[in-house]
Amino acid sequence: MPASTQVPFADFIGLRLVRMHGGEAESALPMKPELLNTWQVAHGGVTMTLLDVTMAHAARSLNMKGQDKGPGVVTVEMKTTFMRPGEGTLVCRARVLHRSSTMAYTEGSVYGANGLLCAHATGTFKYLRALPASSGFRVLPQKDGQE
């Protein structure tokens, strides 16, 4: 049964983790109208999110202890190539190509409902125990009339 990714944005768009183990991960994302572009296929940013989250889970899976998903990772770099439009439920399969003590080098592929390859990416992820509490990030209140 698909599980939460524990990434609020990914969970919000409906991305579900199918499996993660031994440097590999798989996730699925059913398309819905809000995730489509003007041609009524998966928006490129949605496809890239699917790749990013799945590759990150592949990297994290190397440090899992039981149900604990291990230390978090942040994306350092990602390169994506789009081959064809993504339609229906998209499935992403990712794996770690190489790992150092602080970095994971990964690749991932997205397949459409027809089983054809839609996109492929490589990504580099840095392992982190936690983000600094004083990162300075905060949400500023909007002023009247601003979007």
Short overview:
The protein is an alpha+beta fold. It is built from two helices and six strands, in the order H-E-E-H-E-E-E-E. 16% of the residues lie in helices and 37% in strands.
Structural commentary:
There is one protein chain. This protein is an alpha+beta fold and 147 residues long. It has a single domain (8-128), classed as Hotdog Thioesterase (Thiol Ester Dehydrase, Chain A), CATH 3.10.129. It has two helices and six strands. The protein has helices at 8-13, 44-61, and strands at 16-21, 24-29, 72-82, 90-99, 103-111, 117-128. The protein has a six-stranded antiparallel β-sheet. Strand 1 (16-21) and strand 2 form a beta hairpin. The longest helix is centred in the middle third of the chain and has 18 residues, at 44-61. The protein is globular. The N and C termini lie far apart (39 Å).
Count of distinct structural domains: 1
CATH architecture: Roll
Strand content: 35-45%
Determine the mean pLDDT.
89
Q: Return the CATH topology.
A: Thiol Ester Dehydrase, Chain A
CATH homologous superfamily designation: Hotdog Thioesterase
Find the structural class using helix and strand composition.
alpha+beta
Q: Provide the CATH top-level class.
A: Alpha Beta
Radius of gyration: 16 Å
**Spatial strand sequence of the major β-sheet:** 1-2-4-5-6-3
The tally of beta strands, per DSSP, is 6
Shape, principal axes of CA atoms: globular
End-to-end gap: 39 Å
Q: Which H/E pattern describes the elements? A: HEEHEEEE
Helix content: 10-25%
**Helical stretch tally:** 2
